[in-house]
UniProtKB/TrEMBL annotation:
TPR repeats lie at residues 334-367. NCBIfam families: sigma70-ECF. Residues 88-138 form the RNA polymerase sigma factor 70 region 4 type domain. GO terms for molecular function: DNA binding; sigma factor activity. It comes from Actinoplanes campanulatus. InterPro entries: DUF6596, RNA_pol_sigma-70_dom, RNA_pol_sigma70_r2, RNA_pol_sigma70_r4_t2, RNA_pol_sigma_r2, RNA_pol_sigma_r3/r4-like, TPR-like_helical_dom_sf, TPR_rpt. Keywords: Sigma factor, TPR repeat, Transcription, Transcription regulation. This is RNA polymerase sigma-70 factor (ECF subfamily). Residues 6-56 form the RNA polymerase sigma-70 region domain.
Length: 379
């Protein structure tokens, strides 16, 4: 529909949604048609033509509509998975990386603007404006909506990797949406097979497997979070850990360590330690140092500070987190305040710790995390 409407993302979304609505109303009574995709496509196209006519844009738009190929995808694509194909199609280099990722998450993955804004640590209004501008840029600049040939896939790979990572995280933090993790891992496997010489694709798959291996131990029977050091390691999925660690080693041997490979190496340090007490925290700090050079961000700095607290004690990490808090860049990020509260508690500053726990609980995105932080506050 985006191609059919000449790159008008908003019109394409509206018409697709209208076709789904009509299907939900008609199919239960009339039965599912023999070719449901063709029915949906035809219905959406008819709706688009009606809207174009209604808005008196017939002269400008109908010739474009008439020239569009009826097939939804070209037959000669090198990409063996339709969802992955769509991701590569949407990652046009004329848009910046953030815009590419946000558009895919909104239009192909079904995440709300609020969820995307949370993933980017931005206000919802700001993300809404960026999405709008990205769609307008596609429309006004006439950016073509077509599957890229194989030789152009590497330049679009970073955006696709980020999309899959954010999709995985959305399912990882919310048990209700765990299916997103499974789908992200599935598509990442296809991607790693499609581009076996790209170590970052292997690194991302490794990272997902290593994190997902701990799923059964991450929450208690009430559904509340269990921190890594307290998790029952007998519940971890050892085959997934073995596969993830092997993929990480295979990627790093290429000699082109990228952010996802380094994050996978950090996850492997956690997952392969026999006990929490045997975790090589000094190595993890060194890996975060490397990650900060590759992809500097306040979240990386925060995670590094946590590793420093485990390697050298809370007193060594507290100034790092205080300095990060003073920048204001993570002021609405609940994990900043939760980390600060934990360090204050461990250094005996209980009154200040309580205040930080209150702030973290107020910002927690899920009820389970709010209960966990409130319990820490009460204790």
């Amino acid at each position: 529909m985006i191609r059919f409407t000449g790159g008008d993302w908003n019109l394409a979304e509206e018409c697709a949604q209208d076709a789904f609505t009509q299907a939900l109303r008609k199919w239960p009574a009339d039965g599912v048609p023999d070719q449901p995709l063709a029915w949906l496509t035809t219905t959406a196209r008819r709706r688009a033509i009606d809207l174009i006519r209604r808005e008196a844009l017939e002269a400008a738009k109908l010739p474009e509509v008439a020239m569009v190929e009826p097939a939804p995808y070209p037959d000669d694509s090198d990409i063996p998975d339709e969802r992955l194909e769509l991701m590569f199609t949407c990652c046009h280099p004329a848009l910046n990386l953030e815009a590419q990722v946000a558009l895919i998450l909104r239009c192909l993955a079904g995440l709300s603007t609020a969820e995307i804004a949370r993933a980017f640590l931005l206000p919802e209004k700001t993300m809404g404006q960026r999405l709008f501008r990205a769609k307008q840029r596609i429309r006004n600049a006439g950016i073509p909506f077509r599957v890229p040939p194989a030789h152009l896939l590497p330049e679009r790979l970073p955006a696709v990797l980020h999309v899959l990572y954010l999709l995985f995280n959305e399912g990882y933090t919310d048990p209700v949406r765990a299916r997103l993790c499974a789908e992200a891992i599935r598509v990442a496997r296809v991607l790693a097979a499609l581009m076996p010489d790209e170590p970052e694709a292997l690194g991302l798959l490794s990272l997902m497997l290593l994190h997902d291996a701990r799923r059964a131990a991450r929450r208690d029977p009430a559904g509340d979070p269990v921190i890594l050091t307290d998790q029952d390691r007998t519940l971890w999925d050892r085959p997934s850990i073995d596969e993830g660690a092997a993929l990480c080693e295979r990627a790093l041997r290429r000699g082109r360590a990228g952010p996802f490979q380094v994050q996978a190496a950090i996850a492997a340090c956690h997952a392969t330690a026999p006990t929490a007490g045997e975790t090589d925290w000094a190595q993890i700090v060194a890996l975060y140092d490397h990650l900060a050079r590759l992809e500097p961000s306040p979240v990386v700095d925060l995670n590094r500070a946590v590793a420093v607290s485990m390697a050298s004690g809370p007193a060594a990490a507290l100034p790092l987190v205080v300095a990060l808090a003073e920048t204001g860049r993570l002021d609405d990020y609940h994990l900043l305040h939760a980390t600060l509260a934990d360090l204050l508690r461990r250094t005996g500053r209980r009154t200040e710790a309580a205040e930080s726990y209150r702030r973290a609980a107020d910002l927690a995105p899920t009820e389970a995390e709010r209960r966990f932080l409130t319990a820490r506050l009460d204790s």
